[in-house]
Design brief:
Its EC number is 1.11.1.6. Keywords: Heme, Hydrogen peroxide, Iron, Metal-binding, Oxidoreductase, Peroxidase. One of its GO terms (biological process) is hydrogen peroxide catabolic process. GO terms for molecular function: catalase activity; heme binding; metal ion binding. This protein is α+β, with helices and mostly antiparallel strands and 538 residues long. Helices cover 25% and strands 15% of the residues. It has 13 helices and twelve strands. The strands form two sheets. Strands 1, 2, 3, 4, 5, 6, 7, 8, 11 and 12 form a ten-stranded antiparallel β-sheet that branches. Strands 9-10 form a two-stranded antiparallel ribbon. Helix 5 runs parallel beside helix 10 and helix 11 crosses helix 13. The radius of gyration is 26 Å and the shape is globular. It starts with 13 loop residues before the first helix and ends in a 30-residue tail after the last helix. The site of protoporphyrin IX containing FE (HEM) has 29 residues, from strand 2, strand 3, strand 4 and helix 9. The site of protoporphyrin IX containing FE has 29 residues, from strand 2, strand 3, strand 4 and helix 9.
Amino acid sequence: HGPETVSPTGQPTGAEQARMAQSGAYLTTAQGARLYDTDHSLKAGARGPVLLQDHHLREKITHFDHERIPERVVHARGAAAHGVFQAYGTAAPVSKAAFLAKGVETPVFVRFSTVLGSRGSADTVRDTRGFATKFYTEEGVFDLVGNNIPVFFIQDAIKFPDVIHAGKPHPDREIPQAQSAHDTFWDFVTLHTEATHHTLWNMSDRGIPRSYRMMEGFGVHTFRLVNAEGDSTLVKFHWKPKLGVHSLVWEEAQIAAGVDPDFHRRDLADAIEAGAFPQWELGIQTFPDTPEQNFAGIDLLDPTKIVPEEMAPVQPIGLLTLNANPSNYFAETEQVAFHLGHLVPGIDVTDDPLLQGRLFSYLDTQLTRLGGPNFGQLPINRTHAPVNDMLRDGMHQTAVHRGVAPYRPNSLDGGCPFLAGEDTGAFVEVPAEVAASVKERKAPASFDDHFSQPRLFWLSMTPTEREHIIAAYTFELGKCYEQAIKERALTVLANIDSELCAQVAAGLGLPAPAAGARVTDPAPSPALSQLGRAWPLD
Ligand code: HEM
């Protein structure tokens, strides 16, 4: 890497671009030396042992040996596309973000994913789907890292390792892949009843989307928008697909998982290649930023709650069009790194304790996954805004930084006349009062209501949708070995709706608990990993 290979903003130039494009007429070593044979190693005689001296052999195999990076600890399986976001300007009164001003077009990269399965798992499993969008705005990168379900399993990020340990395959046999049909999942979600709402969405048709192009997306948490006057508004983000929301039925999902495990990624790539560009409108629900941070009694900091659209309509603020497939899966879909802390002026976070923990987790995990602190320089992660930071060196550094004084102020390099406190149009946190309080590990009392919104969801379903939900609970719970877990799950269902509970109980061949039965602490149960047990087939 000579100094001419990287432009001052970190973009590769000239020779570097040619190297990356692999465009030479001859096959070469990584150093550019031409090769005359890449199929036979250098040996002591045609039938003799291989010589250590064969650098090409060692370079080729060594590089191959290190081709894999760790898959994401969650959302390992994904498919992505490039596109453009065009702002309607309707959000301008509530946010000063430049990319939300009328008519502004911003390049984006969107990665869809399942959550629990490994990188090679099937697409059409029953699971939540990730919907992560990177906006390359002129004011820096903004990431909206959402899901296709508007609520989450837990209310505090400290439980995230626990819910994922419970949802991932069992540690002994590493089954099942990417579905909720197992004891640890049901054990967790019935003992932590805040998970009831998300679980119900998973058991509904939302858990088996027909296509990534036909899914809604949700920012889940409440965010804060700030306008040019400094006024702050609380919002929830929604993506609404132009094609409408469609799901598979369970039998289709199962057949597709067997016949074409790549069903969703193939659908996305084929549609884009054919010019049928999928589109979503981005919308916001807006709420006054009051000290209580609740709306009509719904705690806006509780990520297990929605605000019904009848109470706060989703107002469209822009249009997303996905119009190009990645040209290299690894470089783009695998190496993209989203982060909730990637914010631009006009968009800020709130004190939702799940959101706050995510602010820590993503960078931390990416340091391992992407091998050190410089993954922001990878082409897919690079901001389109000029960069003038003071970050230097480190593993996989590819920028050739100029100057001698990476600190501010300095009297040697000049160049950046920035003074602390000066109005540079920079991101500034909204001054928000923090309640005078004692340190405590406690959730607000409003977080204790775990059943009223699941009930609302159930009651909003059509008879066919209810049938699907009953069948899903019956199928998934039917995979559990532990009777006590099934019984506890029925108790949770009794707290949602007695008919739902009765039908699932009948499907499982168990008595239905009385309405309002209480979920109690579990009795110790024998370990699951006893050998010799068959995995139930249906
Ligand atoms: C990855 C969404 C909660 C930790 C992801 C991805 C999405 C997502 C969409 C995939 C990003 C990609 O495509 O690369 C969400 C949503 C959440 C949530 C909507 C709740 C509302 C959490 C929490 C934690 C967490 C509470 C940890 C405390 C992670 C980690 C990754 C990830 C470690 C892998 C990131 C990487 O390797 O690049 N999440 N997540 N998530 N999430 Fe979350």
